[in-house]
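Narrative of activities, Objective 1.

The group set out to show that a structural description can be obtained from nothing but a protein's sequence at a throughput compatible with the screening campaign. Below is one input-output pair from the validation batch, recorded exactly as produced.
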Amino acid sequence: MFVQRLNIRKLVRLDSVIFFSININLENQSIKIFGDGLRQAQVNIPNSFIIDAHSSFNPNDEVKIIIYPSKYTCHIQVINNLNGTWIVNYTPNEIGQIQIDIFLGEKLINNNPFQVNIFDINQIYISNLNDGFVNQLVKFNIDTSKAGIGQLEIVVQDGEISCNAISYNSSQFDVTFLPYKCGLYKIDIRYNGLTIPGNLYKKN
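Output recorded for this entry:
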C-alpha cells in the first residue's frame, strides 16, 4: 500500500491516533486528564476532554478552564458528572496554537499549560486536477498555507498506486501519480487524520 505523508511547517509527525492522557498528583490527589482535545483540534468543531478526580472527590470542587491566547471568545462548556469527573467541551474559532490551563477548585492542575494545535481542513485547496492519459504522469497542486500546522496524507486508489509530492515551499505541493489503466481514480487527501471534504476522482 502506497501512502504519501508530508509534515507541514516542520511539525513533529502526528500519529494517526491523537488520544492524549496524563496522570497528575496534586496534594495527594490522583487526577487523570485525557481526550483528543488536549492535543489537536479542528477549528469551529466541538472538541472535548475529560478530567477524572474521583479517587479524591470533593462535591464542592469546581473546574475552571482558561484558554489563551485568543482574539475571539472561545465557547467552553464544563459538565460536572457529580461523581468526581468532568467533561470539558470547547469550540476553537481560529487557527494556531492555543494553551489550556485547568483549575480544580482554586488549584492549577497542570503546572505547564496543554499546548493544542488548531487547524482547518476547509482551508486546503486542490487545483489543476485535470483528465489525463494512461502511462502519463497526472499532476495537481495542493495548498495548505492557510490550514495551520499539520500532516498531509495522500492516498491514490486506496493505496494501490504510488504517488509523489514535491514541496515548492513549506506548505504548497506538486503531486504526481502514474495511472496504469483507463477509468476513475480515487484520491483521498487527509490532514491530521481528517479527510478533506469530498473525495477527488481523476478520470483517465
